[in-house]
Amino acid sequence: MPQATAKAPAPWSPLLKTHLTSSKSKSFTLSTVTHHPTTGLPVPRSRTCELRGFFPEVLSLHPSAASALDAQGIDRTPSGLESDMPVFTTDIRMAKVGELGVSGGQVEGVFWLEEVQVQWRVKGRTCVFGGEGKEEEQKRVWEGVRGQDAGLVEGDWDWERMVTTYFASHSPVMRGTFRNPPPGQPRSKHPETSELKIGQKVEDLRDPVARRNFRVVVIKPEEVEMLDLSRAPDAVRKRWTVVRDGDGDTERWEEVELWP
């Protein structure tokens, strides 16, 4: 089976990124696991998320964000750094964040890219950034970054700046949603306050309330599957899986072609 080291671009990565470039939508379905409150049995949960880029890339900045980042002296283009790790953002108060703990951080993201008639499944472990720093998660993500030879080392990397840049990829209205009343909670028990209310716009990239609730989630893929229906009836289906050798320090990708 074809193989590649984890530090080189993953063999599936260029094709997925090409397909995403051809697609108008960057949305995907994220699946997690929780427990039923009565039976304690595992229960699947799914929701639609928006791809924000591949760490540390930011797919797009809101037009108002570039000048705001410049005003705060924040470098929005980490030169020479790239990875194969998808990024999405969320509110710490949403159920999905707690569900990451139930599943050990394991998730599955499914992209259906209509323009190219291809479905992608990305399974892996998540790392959540924002709030207090987590050195173990920082190290895990940094191991998947290529291009450190550009002169930047982990000790020089500003994780808080990275979170600010992803926050800037949202419109002021979207940033304002992080100042909403707690999502998913009854309105009768959580009325609006002067701090938490619907319809706010946030221009300040360091707004303390919004940033307290804002999180960046990085998926470090361990299994990726592609189903290309553009060639039906003989559709192409492939799966790539990370294999760890020896003591687990060395990783490579194994590829296998499947029946559709």
Automatic annotation (TrEMBL):
Q: What is this protein called?
A: Uncharacterized protein
